[in-house]
Amino acid sequence: MLNRNATILSAALLALPLAGAAQADTSDKTIALSNNYAGNSWRQAMLKSWETITAKAVADGVVQSAEAFTTAENQATEQAAQIQNMILQGYSAIVINSASPTALNGAVKEACDAGIIVVSFDGIVTEPCAWRVAVDFKKMGSGQLDYLAQRYPDGGNLLEIRGLAGTSVDTEIHEGIAAGVSAHPNFKVVSEVQGDWTQTVAQKSVAGVLPSLPEVVGVVTQGGDGFGAAEAFKAAGRPTPTIILGNRDDELRWWKEQKDANGYETMSVSIAPGVSTLAFWVAQQILDGQEVPKDLVVPFLSIDQAGLEKALENTEAGGVANVEYSLDDAKKVIEAAKAGG
Amino acid sequence: MTGALANPRLLRALLPPVSLILLLAVIFTIQPRAMSYLGLNLMLNLALPIALATIAQLCVIAVNDLDLSIGAFVSLVACIGATILPENPALGLAALAGCIAVYAALGALIHWRNLPAIVVTLGMSFVWLGAAVLLLPSPGGSAPAWLSAVVKLRTPAIPFAILASALLALLVHLFLMRSSLGVVLRGAGGNPQAVRRAGWSLLKTKMAMYALCGFFGCLSGLCLVGLTTSADANIALRYTLLSIAGVILGGGEFTGGRVSPIGAVIGALTLTLAGSLLTFLRISPDWQIGAQGAILILVLALRALVNRTERRAA
Shortest Cα distance from B179 to chain A (angstroms)? Predict the structure, then answer.
């Protein structure tokens, strides 16, 4: 026992100077968040997480400042100008949720040339000098099929709800779902509708195809569309299939109701808006002189049957289930990327 | 003689540069780092495509019309610049020439059928945007290296953006305000009856002004894609309103062929700098749109005052 305590103590002592060194190195650094849009619950939660985590980091002396800036309109040219202004203000690092994967490349290159660390997340940029905290949307799509395959070993028909047309996120999730279907060939997507990540749009689209739809065992989605689909099935008087949800508050509440009423089972998966805080820690680690691979992958936030109640507690009304990341989480992600790459 | 202050015409011409200088002074006080070659370059290099789009808009406003499609058009040109132009320069240039021809045809259509320009150009904005999405369904492409080299040129002493803006303002001013052809073109907006009676074709002048708008729109798109290095179908949608605001800020009027190219370029620079100022002031994003609007209203209120003195003098 004593021996064990001593080990813990010495480990703590060993860790202390290390942590101290890490703090000393970045305590005079400034980090700015350049965000292109704040008009939905996900983005609001993202900004709030940023504020919570960075306020603490600033108070602890980890960094000198970490301000968030959002462009007034969701336009790439405006965000490019914003980044150029940030270069002038002399930030040590800029964390970007980008309006476009490519249109900011000019401004990002200028920032890199000025010696500024650029970390993009969620809406990533393709400029090679920047770091990318990306989401494996393909896996988010194929993961839904893996879950359904385990629920329905015999397979069946599926309805797919797509996101906003022409966006890379929609294309990637769709490709992931297609890959999942070919990995589990006893499933078949019998219909595809446009949901635009919005419950009302999804409800209308699903209602439109329901009359001609054969029986489906599951609905694969992209988030923000599951509750609308459920409403459409209910209105048509059809049995509710297993609808994969997207962590939105209304979806989780609906799930809880169904679970209490008839033991309904499903899963919910999306990206936690707190990913902004992961990007913050990644930027801090780079400033600290750590070697960080350019491409990092964010873990999803998925909620299973058992974790529903806890997730609901932590989700604000009208919001999205969220987690905020710590420095250790960032280190883990960096390690994973090093191991993988 | 009551001095320059009482001369409304001079006052009107002075308002845009004075606003610009005031804005610059405030920015330099808040952020001294901006007062350098690099600083001015960073703040103003995205102003050049806006200035070009503003001049394009000015051509249409000069003939009493309004172009609601310029933002979408600049986006399309940017997409052409990032896809066709690097691979096949001849085809790319032909596509741009085709776009200008479409603009001229729009001018003809609007004149012939006496259609409201707002409706036609609003419709066209969807056509341009659709074409841009067809060309570049997801953001990407890359600008030809020569184009990026041109717009990122590091001129000695004075940043390229300022030199190019000054040159643009001067050339358009000489052409539109000082040449006899320019007078006729503006006359189509100021007094169409007189221009027609003098034997000029209103159709041709309108087509010429729309074609010029297309031409400057092309320059704007190419300049933009050179700066960003790759394109996005939605890249410049904001330019529609910015360009109109720039023309009006610069002392132009919606009707009467009353425009000022130098003022318009300065107006575009002012609008760009207003954005920088708000970032430097660390104004919360929730207030930024409002603050941007407040700056606009402030300048336009001054303009209204000038207009009143002008009327009183007349």
Answer: 35
CATH class of the domain whose range is B37-282: mainly alpha
* A103 in Cβ contact with A76 (< 8 Å): yes
The whole-angstrom separation of Cα A283 and Cα A54 is 12
Read off the pLDDT of residues B196-220 as tens digits, 9 standing for 90 and up: 999 999 999 999 999 999 999 999 9
Q: Which residues of A touch B295 (CB under 8 A)?
A: none
* CATH number 3.40.109.10 is the correct assignment for the domain at A137-244: no
The DSSP line for A64-94 is: SEEEEEE-SSS-HHHHHHHHHHHHHHT-SEE
pLDDT of A108 above 90: yes
| DSSP conformational letter for A115 | T
Cβ burial of A171 (10 Å; 0-12, 13-18, 19+) is: middle
Q: State the Cα–Cα distance between residues A52 and A44, nearest whole angstrom.
A: 12
Q: At what angle do helices B70-87 and B47-62 cross, to 10 degrees?
A: 120
Above 80 in pLDDT, residue A281?
Answer: yes
Chain Cα centroid distance, residue A193: 23
Residue B106: φ, ψ to 5°:
-60, -45
Question: Is A65 near chain B, with CB under 8 Å?
Answer: no
Q: How far is CA B151 from CA A295, B80, B91, B243, in A?
A: 30, 17, 22, 20
Taking any CB pair shorter than 8 Å as contact, residues of chain B touching chain A are 31, 33-34, 38-39, 42-43, 45-46, 49, 133, 137-141, 148, 224, 227-239, 272, 275-276, 279-280, 282, 285, 288-289, 292
The answer to whether the CB of B202 falls within 8 A of the CB of B188 is yes
CATH architecture of A26-129+272-301+318-340: 3-Layer(aba) Sandwich (3.40)
| Domain A26-129+272-301+318-340 shares a fold with domain A137-244 | yes
CA–CA gap between residue B161 and residue B139 (Å, rounded) = 26
d(CA B156, CA B158): 6
- Alpha helices (runs of H) in chain A, residue ranges in sequence order: 2-26, 41-59, 76-89, 105-113, 137-151, 168-183, 199-209, 226-235, 249-262, 275-287, 308-313, 327-340
Estimate the share of chain B in helix, then strand, then coil, as percent rounded to the nearest 5: 80, 0, 20
Lowest mean pLDDT among A144-148, A159-163, B12-16, B188-192: B12-16
In chain A, where the domains are located? 26-129+272-301+318-340, 137-244
pLDDT given at position A341: 58
Chain A residues 16-45 with CB within 8 Å of chain B = 35, 38
List the domain boundaries for chain B. 37-282
Q: By the 8 A CB rule, do A326 and A336 touch?
A: no
Chain B: nearest CA to A165, how far in angstroms?
10
pLDDT exceeds 50 at position A14: no
pLDDT tens digits, one per residue of A23-52: 447 899 999 999 988 777 788 889 999 999
Cβ B72 vs Cβ B125: under 8 Å: yes
